[in-house]
Structure formats: structure tokens, C-alpha cells
Amino acid sequence: MSNFNFEQLKILYVDPNERAHTVVRTILSAMGIKKYNSLLDTAELFNELSRRPPDILITEYKLDEIDGLELIHRIRHDDKAPDHYLPVILLTGHTEKRVVAGARDAGVHHVLAKPISIQQFYSAIRWLVSNPVPFIQSGEYYGPDRRRKERPFDGDERRSSEAVADQAASDATEAADDASDQTASADQTDRDEAAPEQTPEQTPEQAAAAAD
Fold this sequence. Notes:
By secondary structure, this protein is an alpha/beta fold. The protein has one domain (10-161): Rossmann fold (3-Layer(aba) Sandwich). It has seven helices and seven strands, in the order E-H-E-H-E-H-E-H-E-H-E-E-H-H. The protein has helices spanning 18-30, 45-51, 68-77, 97-106, 118-130, 160-194, 204-211, and strands spanning 10-14, 35-39, 56-59, 88-92, 110-113, 135-138, 141-144. The protein has a five-stranded parallel beta sheet with strand order 2-1-3-4-5, sandwiched between helices. The protein has a two-stranded antiparallel sheet with strand order 6-7. Strand 3, helix 3 and strand 4 form a beta-alpha-beta unit.
């Protein structure tokens, strides 16, 4: 779906919901991402990060013993974490202000809301790949520079996923219009068939002639 090659990109996804793994795997596969690994809990997470270091970690907020915010904080600060600079995406249905602000303070790169679309995923991952963010230490905060500005792609760099979405929206609109026209035509046909045949009104002279 894209002219951006993600084949060598390694993704690790942590979420206790097995159905969420199916959805995410399907979306990433459509984007050309083949190196995908997943965990249902955090018990072996740091070992997995050491054995098969991912390029991007995607995590849910609601996990098991810890939540996603604590997980991000540990990745940034824990001596056992193999990569303090690991790009992290929080993918969750919990988009309350405190969760989003907490994720930002913990050092997340992106917060994405469930249900996720392929266009949103593509935008976030392409941005991470194309725009490495410097890490800063500011007081207790350690993580990606939060002063960065995310700029959309313009002109020739417009995301192909946006073009696909635009075309899909256009097709959907045309389909809806066609369906509406067909429904209106069918309704008119039904009304015509249901209406009784009307006998043309006769003049007095015609009525008299008919009586004779």
C-alpha cells in the first residue's frame, strides 16, 4: 500500500487482548511489515527486548502487573532495560487526559487510540522512521524531545495511505449516491405499480353516446 519500505522494520507488540494482536498484525502486514513479534504480558518483556531487539515497541495501557506508563518509565530509566532510546507507541482505548499526559511524561513517542486505522498507524510509524527525535534530560523527565512538531507530508511526499483513504471515501460517496438513486427509482416503480388504472374522464356527449 505504500512506497515506503518497512520490510526490515522489527515491531514488538504487548497487549493482553489476543484479538487486538490479530487486528494489529493484519494492519502491519498490509503495510509491508513482516518482522512482527508479540507478547500477552510483560513477564518476559525485558528478556525479549534483549534477545530480539525491536525497532519500535507498541504497548497497551492496561497490561498485567504494571500499566503501560510504568512500562515506558522503566524502559527509559531502568538499568535492566537494554535500550533506553527505544521508540514507543502507546496504543490504547484509554485516552483519558491523565493517561495521555502520563504517557507523554513517561517518555512515549506517540499515543494512538483504539480502534486504530491503517492510515493512523502508517502515519505514526513513517514519522518515527523518517524523523529520529533527540532525547533530552529535563529534571526527572528523560525521553524524546517533547518540543518537536509533527508536520504532515505535502506535495510529492503525501502519504500514499492518505490517497488510498481519499479514494475510498470518494468511492463510498459514489456508492451511497448510487444506492440512493436506485432506492428512489425502486420506490417510484412500486408506487406506479400499486396505483390503480384511471379511466379517462368522459364528456357528457361521450357518456350519452356510450349509453346508446
